[in-house]
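User: what does the whole thing look like in 3D?
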Amino acid sequence: MQVLLSSQQLADTIKVLSQQLSKSYPSLENIVFVGIQQGGVVIANDIVALLQQQHSSEKVQFGQLDITFYRDDIRKEILAPDTMNIPFAIENKIVVLIDDVLFTGRTIKAALDALLDYGRPAKVELCVLIDRKEHRQFPIQADYVGATVTTKKTDKVKLVNREVVLIPA
Amino acid sequence: MQLSTRHLLGIKNLTKEDISLILSTAEQFKEVLQRPVKKVPSLRDITIVNLFYENSTRTRFSFELAEKRLSADTINFAASSSSAAKGETLLDTVNNILSMKVDMVVMRHSASGAPHFLSQHIPAAIINAGDGINEHPTQALLDAFSIKEKTGSLEGRKVAIIGDIMHSRVAQSNIYLLNKMGAKVTVCGPPTLIPKYISEALGVNVSYNLRETLEWCDVANVLRIQLERQNQVLFSSLREYSIAYGINRQLLDSLQKEIVIMHPGPINRGVELDSDVADSKQSIILQQVENGVAVRMAVLYLLANRS
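Assistant: Here's the predicted 3D structure for the full assembly of 476 residues, as structure tokens:
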């Protein structure tokens, strides 16, 4: 097991991401943030908390999205669904999807499918903590990237106890 | 994370973990049903036949809607309008349907054990939508889901099942489920409609007194008098039944507490339940129907991967 981001590096990276988002969106009026279960929600929680400090006058809109029912490998393995909670309308809003690790792009494809069942957003952006760029299987890329790492396809990259670790196969 | 069984034949052979898994999955499906697009693509590669050898409105619509909300392809079979009327056997009918590449069978049959028989002879996953006087597992699951949703938990909850216990598959499935989940069950009705050894066999309390039962319980699940399953006179008249075991507003108002009223439908209004009870705030009868779709989606979703 190899530590890719220590807890301090993780906190710093999340801070940088929130600053980038703040810069893109000085007002959060039409922006909603949606974390993807489960790792993405952990990261999104932190990002949203920082954004809320910077925008104390407005309430940052934050939801959690679960892709279990939208997976394209659903016949291989059955997974218990996690909580889905989108407590606001996304119609004509800018949605910032937040995930921990961007790997093949299949999770994001499923997340987009799920998201569109809630309405038609004006725009969807993607913010990820870690990008495993060389393993993409779909034409999907992130708008905000915390760190890009080089990995083997068989490696697992996970958020464990507030550290990002690489677990070799 | 999977069920311990390939089929849902009854609650009897489910584990406590199976039941919890179905109920928690159903919670997520209930959320799906509140969205603008009430549909997920999970079962779009699955074909399901709804095989109804016995009449049904709620259960058949509920299953069909659950299947469609999961994007499954569905075909419907009603015995009265099929070759079953020409004398084809159950197994022949099902094998013919399965040769058209059907993955799952939802079946209602008037013979107790019909889905169990089928499960020994065909490869598809079978879901029992009610077999004779044996079990109606998805009804018990949706009842449990509704109790949990309304009162917070099943553990320790006092549930009365009132009416025709003898002929009720809903009662039997409910008793199995509530026992497994740690609820306390009392069955109540005329002595002729309660099996003699039910207390020893299924571990429930028996009461012949409606008022006492209502005073004891948190939730009253009121059953329909199943006239179609009775070939002997077990009580003198519907009117007399209604006087002794019918629940009316006056009776509910005279209790010290507010209990939850449930009914699996169809209601015989004025017999087991008066209209001003069935349509009151205490009644969760329509929520039961709504929850039925979410619970059946959970069952189908969890079994589709096992077929």
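In plain terms: DSSP finds three helices and eight strands in chain A. Helices of chain A lie at 7-24, 39-54, 106-116.
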